[in-house]
């Protein structure tokens, strides 16, 4: 005969509830739109490599062209999303205009400028914190590299985030 006491039942209930509850919790990595996922699959193949001329725009151009996305072939990479109301997903594209970021790392303060720059969200690390894939940067030159952007560190300029849309 197996004896089950109240403590064992309570432990079982808590563990079961936590497993069920947290299995329902998703994040931007879990529910990526199909077109975004295709863009990320392409970007993964380019990390550490030069895409076309090595301009930042070239990575976006190749990614969107390969997945047959609809865009204006300039700097509107799909549907403009509202950062305050919508989730940002890997595969979304960011256009920087006159942006300056300032952040601390250890005891040092860094400032970076992106006057006119394009990047692809590679991973969403937290709300407003993204790992970006981009090229033509100070850290990776004309090859595709990854860096982190925390939008709370933007002190000047504007960013626009676009959701890729399928060509009609």
Quick take:
With 168 residues, the chain is an alpha+beta fold.
Helix content: 10-25%
H/E element sequence: HHHEEEEEEEE
The side-by-side strand order for the widest beta sheet comes to 2-7-3-4-5-6
Number of domains: 1
Q: Structural class, please? A: alpha+beta
- Approximate strand percentage: 35-45%
User: Which parts are unreliable, with pLDDT below 50 for 5 consecutive residues or more?
Assistant: 7-27
| Tally of helical segments | 3
Shape: globular
Taking the sheet with the most strands, its summary is: 6 strands, antiparallel
Written overview of the protein:
The chain is of the alpha+beta class and 168 residues long. It has one domain. Helix content is 24%, strand content 36%. The chain is built from three helices and eight strands, in the order αααββββββββ. The protein has helices spanning 6-24, 34-44, 56-66, and strands at 69-70, 79-80, 93-105, 108-126, 129-134, 145-150, 154-163, 165-166. The chain has a six-stranded antiparallel sheet. Helix 2 crosses helix 3 (56-66). It is globular. The termini are far apart. Mean pLDDT is 87; it is low at 7-27.
Please give the structural blueprint.
Blueprint: H1 6-24, H2 34-44, H3 56-66, E1 69-70, E2 79-80, E3 93-105, E4 108-126, E5 129-134, E6 145-150, E7 154-163, E8 165-166
Antiparallel strand pairs: 1-8, 2-7, 3-4, 3-7, 4-5, 5-6
Helix pairs in contact: 2-3
